Amino acid sequence: xxxxxxxxxxxxHWSEAGRSEMEAFYALAVEDxxxxxxxxxxxxxxRPHAGDGKRLLDVACGSGKFPSALLAHxxxxxxxxxxxxxxxxxxxxxxxxxxxxxxxxxPGRELVLxxxxxxxxxxxxxxxxxxxALYAVPPVELPAAAxxxxxxxxxxxxxxxxxxxxxxxxxxxxxxxxAGIAEATPYTSAEQVRDALRSAGAEVREQALHxxxxxxxxxxxxxxxxxxxxxxxxxxxxxxxxxVLGDYLASxxxxxxxxxxxxxxxxxx
Length: 269
Prior knowledge:
Distance between the termini: 40 Å
């Protein structure tokens, strides 16, 4: 039986009711954002776009893990203020992300909508980024989302998308979940986002990141995987017994320990 559209289920899980599941996911997924924070000289990249009324748009901001990682792992103390607008279809996520912001990021507008619904007349931003944020964009809406991303970036601005590739855990796991547990629209891959951005007229440079996350804790693994599927109704045991998905998860397990392989593209506009 189908459990419905991926974007809808994703939105349902970004809520206070899904907090414990979200926290279980980030027990491992916080590494995604640490890797991004260490992947570039962010103070140097942001310096031309800081102070003097400069503005940043965080697309599908989630719970603010990327700005949190930048504040924890880089030194942004020399930058002037950056007005930080938060865009997400979940008001819960916008509130969560807003609470994480600290200097030089100054909370700005709250835009409770999807990227593809961003008004065409929005004033362009000096920085636009989307970090592990576009997986649930319905495939038929990806061209419109890419066009809005490109249009929202001012000439000479900094645009960044971080997204897992089709070979990475998030995509491989979800494809196996769809094959073995429930029908759903697929996740959007980094390759699809890259191609859509280029079709929208952007020049895109790629930077690949490879790393692993893992745990020996059964409950952590279950919570992480449930959030990867936005499905807390299926247990780890049911996942392991499922066709296709069980085989995939067996490849991630050594004894009682779990290891998940990640390949992420940083797409620089």
